[in-house]
Amino acid sequence: MELCEKLQQLRKEHQLTQEQLAESLFVSRTAVSKWETGRGLPNMDSLQLIAKFYGVTLDDLLSAEDVIAVAETENRANLRRFAYGMDGLLNVAALLSSLLPLFKAEQGSAFYAVPLYQFEGWLSVWYWVLPVAMAVCGGTELLLRNQDRETLKRWANVGGFLLNACAVLLFIVSGQPYPAALFFVLLLIKWAVTRTVSKP
After folding, report:
1. Whole-angstrom distance between the N-terminal and C-terminal Cα of the chain?
2. How many CB atoms lie within 10 A of CB 35?
3. Predicted structure pTM score
4. 105 - beta bridge partners?
5. Which residues does 171 contact at the CB level (< 8 Å), separation at least 6?
6. What pLDDT, in 10s, does the model give residues 112-130?
7. Using one digit for the tens of pLDDT, what is the confidence trace for 68-107?
């Protein structure tokens, strides 16, 4: 018998609705529904709670194939959390670029490297907007990293990546080589982390 069938059978034997079971296990009803239809697998913590709740052992619930599938699912989830965490930190770190003397400013006939908060000119607004927007995306990823809000995390991830690419282009076009190089390195790191984690 498949794990999803066992979970459904145990719940029905105990005369519980999916919502009642979800409340007892501190998960969403959607999660219980996914487990029982085979569209998702509970993680090890949830499996231990289920076994304890029903008074059965993990061996009663899981076959050898189920153990492997649960471990693989949990491993992928951990890698995704790591990727969202790294990407979120890199997006927030982009805001710290405003403290570094990276921006080329002309004073008289000389050029000086100044931090963003000392940079003057009409482009300074855009130099601020992109890192602040990236930091917002990063903060969203960090706040939602351990939650089951995959769509919102994905939007924040893609948004941060696109904002980072726009920042690189803006700094190149406006003749700011040091911030362009910094944001390009951030973009490469983010791409490498995402690519590594998304491999099957």
Report:
1. 27
2. 25
3. 0.68
4. 112
5. 127, 177, 179, 180, 183
6. 888 888 888 888 888 999 9
7. 777 888 888 888 888 888 999 999 999 888 888 988 888 7
